[in-house]
Structures are given as structure tokens and as C-alpha cells.
Amino acid sequence: EETPIFRPSSSTKVVEDMDEFQESLQTIPKKVNWDGRWLCYYNNFWCPERVLKSTIFFQRNFKAKDSDIILASIPKSGTTWLKSLSFSIINRKKCTTPESPLLITNPHDLVSCMEYDLFLNGENPDLEAFSCPRIFSTHLPYHALPQSILNAKCRIIYICRNPLDQFIRSEE
Length: 172
Known about the structure:
Elements (H helix, E strand, L loop, with lengths): L17 H10 L2 E3 L5 E5 L2 E4 L3 H10 L7 E5 L5 H12 L16 H4 L1 E2 H5 L16 E4 L8 H5 L3 E5 L13
Parallel strand pairs: 4-6, 4-7, 5-6
Antiparallel strand pairs: 1-2, 2-3
């Protein structure tokens, strides 16, 4: 029986020590982002406050496999394109072009983001349900990746672009 290539539902574990997390949140430097959302300076980078807890869970609990593929990017730098391309390459022998899940499914639903999807609702999602090679994405910088990724032989694919390409200047 072939393992499905679609994203499985993740099981979550209830966070038992919310007080400790809330206490540490009070001591972390914060600032308001350009869009009005809070950023926290954690582990030498500015992390969106809404994913700080899941980022910590990801860093502490993710167990990388040598066959894993990690797609790393900053937001708005080609993440969707990178997910589509990677998913197509990895799964090209499992389905023909007319049967491709990309025709009806958003790439973000096919390649899960660690801090925005998988670890968002719990510290230990069921990652064993993913078929190998597992493809995951993250917006964390290299130095903030879990030690298991840095120690494993998994592949890290990084995409970046000129930040000025992301801004539109209005003519007055």
C-alpha cells in the first residue's frame, strides 16, 4: 500500500507549562512590524509573536531524518513557487501531470510550514505520517534551525530575493 503524498492531519499535545512561556514572553524585546503586528527578538532574529511558541516547539522537538528536505525562505521571497517546484520534482513518479494535486490544491497545503502549520497547535505533531522523503518549509534563518536539521544529512533548499523587489514605490 502506497503512502499518501497529501498532508496528514497532525496530532497535538496540550502545552502544560503556559505560565513559563508567558513569563519569558514578557522579557523578550518587541517591536511593531510595518503591518502593525508584533515581532519578538528571539535567538538573534525578529520572529512574529504569533509563531514564537511554535518556533520554540519546532526548535526543541523536531527530529530530522537524513531523507528530509527543508525549504527555507524569508516571507514573500518565492516560497509558493519553491514549494510547487519541489513537490512536483519529488512526486513526479507518483502521479501524472493531469493527476497532480497542484492542479486543485494550494502548495502551502501540500508542503507544510513548521512554525505556521505543524507546531502551531502543539509541541509534538505526528510527523511520522508523512511519506519519505518528507518536505517541510520554514521561515527561520539558518542559525535558528533545530540542531537535528544541522546534524542530519537532510537537504536544505534556500531561496532568497532582493528585498527591494518586494516593495512598490508610488509616484507622487
